[in-house]
């Protein structure tokens, strides 16, 4: 069995202390995930810390710089979230401090979602438990 690959994601919100909106991103590839909504982020490259990887991914995918908040702790023993059998994702709360989010890479649409419309997009099934955790904190 192959080792689980480390990936990172950001719950990009409008305010770290009292969030009212979450930024969702619609995937364009691979074809099996295209059209599904997710938390922006990606794989951790060799020699990178998870936080460094997340900052890099958000610059590449959305063209923004962020400040990271607390980790959004998942149910796995190390606080990560399972994404199928092959990946485990560490998620941080984040707020944009430079740039305007645009779908530059791997996505074709971004949308700010409030608590009322958080489930109005088709989230990737593996991301739904994370969406539930975010929903509990949105005001």
TrEMBL record:
<comment type="similarity">
    <text>Belongs to the Nudix hydrolase family.</text>
</comment>
<keyword id="KW-0378">Hydrolase</keyword>
<dbReference type="Pfam" id="PF00293">
    <property type="entry name" value="NUDIX"/>
</dbReference>
<dbReference type="InterPro" id="IPR020084">
    <property type="entry name" value="NUDIX_hydrolase_CS"/>
</dbReference>
<feature type="domain" description="Nudix hydrolase">
    <location>
        <begin position="3"/>
        <end position="138"/>
    </location>
</feature>
<keyword id="KW-0235">DNA replication</keyword>
<keyword id="KW-0460">Magnesium</keyword>
<protein>
    <recommendedName>
        <fullName>8-oxo-dGTP diphosphatase</fullName>
        <ecNumber>3.6.1.55</ecNumber>
    </recommendedName>
</protein>
<dbReference type="InterPro" id="IPR000086">
    <property type="entry name" value="NUDIX_hydrolase_dom"/>
</dbReference>
<dbReference type="InterPro" id="IPR047127">
    <property type="entry name" value="MutT-like"/>
</dbReference>
<dbReference type="InterPro" id="IPR015797">
    <property type="entry name" value="NUDIX_hydrolase-like_dom_sf"/>
</dbReference>
<keyword id="KW-0515">Mutator protein</keyword>
<keyword id="KW-0479">Metal-binding</keyword>
<keyword id="KW-0227">DNA damage</keyword>
<dbReference type="InterPro" id="IPR020476">
    <property type="entry name" value="Nudix_hydrolase"/>
</dbReference>
<keyword id="KW-0234">DNA repair</keyword>
């Amino acid at each position: 069995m192959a080792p689980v690959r480390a990936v990172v994601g950001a719950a990009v919100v409008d305010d770290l202390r009292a969030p009212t909106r979450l930024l969702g991103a619609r995937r364009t590839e691979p074809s099996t995930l295209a059209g599904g909504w997710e938390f922006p982020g990606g794989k951790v490259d060799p020699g990178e810390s998870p936080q460094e990887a997340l900052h890099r991914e958000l610059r590449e995918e959305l063209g923004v710089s962020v400040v990271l908040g607390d980790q959004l702790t998942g149910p796995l023993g190390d606080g990560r979230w399972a994404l199928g059998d092959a990946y485990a994702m560490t998620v941080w709360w984040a707020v944009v401090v430079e740039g305007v989010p645009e779908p530059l890479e791997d996505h074709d649409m971004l949308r700010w979602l409030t608590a009322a419309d958080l489930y109005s997009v088709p989230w990737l099934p593996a991301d739904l438990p994370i969406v539930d955790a975010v929903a509990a904190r949105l005001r």
